Amino acid sequence: MSILYSDDDGFFISHQTFISKLYDTILNKTENSVHLYEHFFHINNPFVRDKQQVETSVETNVVKRKRKRPPLEEDEISKRIKTFILNLKNQTGLFSILPKILDNNNCARNASIKFYESTSALKTFYGQNPNPHLHTANGYVFPPKCQFYCDNVFNMKNLGDQKFDLILLDPPWTNKYIKRKKKIKRDEGYTMMVDQDLAQLPINEYLTSNGLVCVWCTNSQNHIDSLKSILFPIWNLKYVACWYWIKVTECGDFVCNFAPGTGKQPYERIFFGRKIDCDTKIKNPEEHKFIASIPSSVHSHKPPLSATRGRTKIA
What CA–CA distance (Å, rounded) separates 286 from 273? Predict the structure, then answer.
């Protein structure tokens, strides 16, 4: 179990433990691939670019631009998150008490670079594992009794007429930073999807009558509004809840400061939607739950949600 702590507000989980236990059943701990995954989570200090890395004892005078104040709801969420993490830090044994190492997370960053280099050539790939145990093939690890499609999302027709109780999406939302990178070098960053592209996904066709959809979303208010008021209705869904994934270092510090307005935050959100005509007796995820964890250095490597299922109100 990857849950290290839980209370009424949420959970503190170990993504590293989840992966390690998963791989322990099929791989020997001496294999490089396992060590590489462990290195993803060596986040020993907050995220900064190399040129910003300085000793904490050095203070600089910086002229800060005034930002718009966040909505009152965001103020309240930020306060709750800070209180939740402070409570976690008061629990014995959850975080490292060793002195901070200001190496800008070099171990984790190098591990993610090696990972990208080893997977950059992977293209379209289909597979399945009908067996009751984990299985490895062509560099992939398959869960028991599963099918796997590594393909363009617009080729969902390859799924046939299957129906699913749960669909999890992590869309490549439009991002100003990635747009700037692509202007400098076209191959940099990832291919983004605009709202019109996401609206074309036939989510409703592949969801069972009581199915649940989970969507990772950025903190952009435009993306949030679009998801709740445009995409969910197009997919025949009603909004039921929003959870917050809080990213912390090995010492329990936030990976970045809270920023007012539309600035970068030390958390991401996941929204839950249920079919509009679903059975009303089915329990939905609770509103405003927190999941805190040390994040992976691999871009958009999200924490496991399955390990929290037994202690939440997800049907």
Answer: 12
